[in-house]
């Protein structure tokens, strides 16, 4: 068959909405072949697949689809068919729309056509959604939900602590030196039993021992009860009784939110770790210093297990935001940290790098070299994370575990690099 005999390539754009979606098909010359509005249900998806088949879609030559989201049932169904799906940033669609109309007119059908034309002219500049396995996608759902739960827990904690500073300084003083602070089960148990400083001052040592046992403490109960009794019975400033009672009612509501957030984070952590340990890449990822099962699951959730997703380690580093950005013009040259990145992976990378300082002598030495070169703490951790990502890329592609001797060989002081802002 001659090349000219092949069917002209077709590109599909889908403007996503909550109740319906607008679909547009264009050919290689930019001519619109079809447009249709479909529902957000199984019948609508059947209409879409029928429309694609009508215009030459096949298993051997699937029509690529551009859409403004990477989530939802429609995207999941499209990915399940094996066709390439491209998630296009809405800002990119808005910029492309201006190429065709100075009046800045907008409609769902126009946006669908703009998405199809983006693939027609710039498909190589966009990354298609990865072909991750079902288990990797499940880990991504759980890990992101657990990370959101942790952020919700922190927000609930900060709200409660801000509230207690207004009227209940004794409970803050009682757990100021505790490792988990108000997150501690003991703190939340005592706060639930005595939501006002007046009620806390009436707690006896016997009651405090009972509350500590209820919170699950099994050691040092006598000493801890004596310490709490002494702290809670100190002299503090008080609001009038009715005002204090009003604060207590609000505190009980905030405490319920914190309890729920803590329970959600703990339950999702168990589910995330359980799913992560079933994945074939778990042993490789968890072999890195500073990466436990939970942080390893977060890393896997963001990078996936589709080995073709990143062309090289540099692409992965740019995606994570660990690779710096160089801006050069004339005699001006500035190296800056990357702002556009996967925020979840970058946050996990900071935790990973910081934890590795105690788990790996090589990581600590690398961090110290960066600090001596002039990097600040965050920049030095980002540089360490950047190096870890290069190692991780290699280990995953070659299916080998982390080797500390190869990861951080001895380097002379002359190899110290200049600092990065």
Structure description:
By secondary structure, the chain is of the alpha/beta class. It folds into three domains: 3-128, Ribonuclease H-like superfamily/Ribonuclease H (Nucleotidyltransferase, domain 5, 2-Layer Sandwich); 138-274; 283-415, no CATH class. Helix content is 56%, strand content 9%. The chain has helices at 42-54, 73-80, 90-97, 108-122, 134-167, 169-174, 185-193, 197-201, 205-214, 221-232, 241-276, 282-286, 293-303, 313-320, 343-359, 361-372, 377-398, 404-407; strands spanning 10-15, 20-27, 32-39, 65-67, 85-87, 325-329, 332-336. The strands form two sheets. It has a five-stranded mixed β-sheet with strand order 3-2-1-4-5. The chain has a two-stranded antiparallel sheet with strand order 6-7. Helix 5 packs antiparallel against helix 11 (241-276) and helix 15 crosses helix 17 (377-398). The chain is globular.
Write the layout of secondary structure elements.
Layout: E1 10-15, E2 20-27, E3 32-39, H1 42-54, E4 65-67, H2 73-80, E5 85-87, H3 90-97, H4 108-122, H5 134-167, H6 169-174, H7 185-193, H8 197-201, H9 205-214, H10 221-232, H11 241-276, H12 282-286, H13 293-303, H14 313-320, E6 325-329, E7 332-336, H15 343-359, H16 361-372, H17 377-398, H18 404-407
Parallel strand pairs: 1-4, 4-5
Antiparallel strand pairs: 1-2, 2-3, 6-7
Helix pairs in contact: 3-4, 5-11, 5-13, 7-9, 9-10, 11-13, 13-15, 14-17, 15-16, 15-17, 16-17
């Amino acid at each position: 068959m001659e090349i000219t005999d092949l069917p002209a390539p077709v590109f599909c754009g889908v403007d996503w909405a909550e109740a319906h979606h607008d679909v547009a098909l264009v050919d290689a010359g930019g001519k619109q072949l079809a447009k249709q509005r479909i529902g957000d249900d199984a019948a609508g998806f059947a209409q879409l697949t029928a429309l694609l088949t009508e215009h030459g879609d096949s298993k051997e030559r699937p029509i690529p689809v551009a859409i403004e989201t990477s989530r939802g049932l429609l995207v999941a169904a499209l990915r399940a068919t094996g066709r390439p799906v491209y998630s296009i940033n809405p800002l990119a669609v808005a910029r492309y729309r201006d190429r065709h109309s100075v009046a800045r007119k907008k409609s769902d059908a126009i946006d669908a056509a703009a998405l199809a034309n983006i693939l027609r002219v710039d498909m190589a500049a966009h990354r298609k959604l990865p072909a991750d396995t079902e288990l990797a996608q499940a880990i991504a759902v759980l890990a992101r939900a657990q990370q959101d739960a942790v952020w919700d827990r922190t927000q609930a904690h900060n709200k409660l602590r801000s509230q207690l500073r207004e009227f209940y300084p004794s409970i803050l003083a009682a757990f100021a030196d505790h490792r988990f602070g108000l997150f501690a089960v003991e703190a939340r148990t005592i706060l639930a039993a005595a939501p006002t400083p007046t009620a806390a001052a009436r707690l006896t040592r016997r009651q405090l021992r009972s509350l500590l046992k209820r919170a699950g403490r099994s050691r040092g109960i006598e000493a801890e009860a004596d310490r709490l009794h002494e702290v809670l019975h100190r002299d503090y400033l008080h609001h009038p009784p009715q005002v204090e009672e009003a604060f207590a009612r609000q505190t009980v509501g905030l405490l319920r939110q914190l309890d729920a957030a803590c329970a959600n984070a703990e339950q999702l952590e168990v589910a995330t770790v359980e799913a992560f340990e079933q994945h074939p890449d778990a042993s490789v990822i968890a072999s890195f210093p500073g990466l436990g099962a939970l942080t390893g699951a977060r890393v896997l959730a963001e990078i996936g297990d589709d080995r073709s997703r990143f062309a090289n380690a540099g692409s992965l580093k740019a995606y994570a935001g660990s690779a710096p950005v160089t801006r050069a013009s004339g005699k001006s040259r500035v190296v800056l940290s990357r702002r556009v990145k996967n925020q979840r992976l970058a946050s996990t990378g900071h935790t990973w790098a910081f934890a590795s300082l105690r788990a790996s002598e090589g990581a600590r030495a690398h961090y110290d070299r960066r600090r001596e070169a002039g990097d600040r703490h965050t920049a030095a951790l980002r540089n360490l994370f950047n190096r870890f990502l290069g190692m991780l890329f290699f280990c995953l592609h070659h299916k080998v575990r982390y080797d500390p001797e190869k990861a951080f060989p001895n380097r002379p002081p002359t190899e110290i690099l200049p600092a990065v802002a």
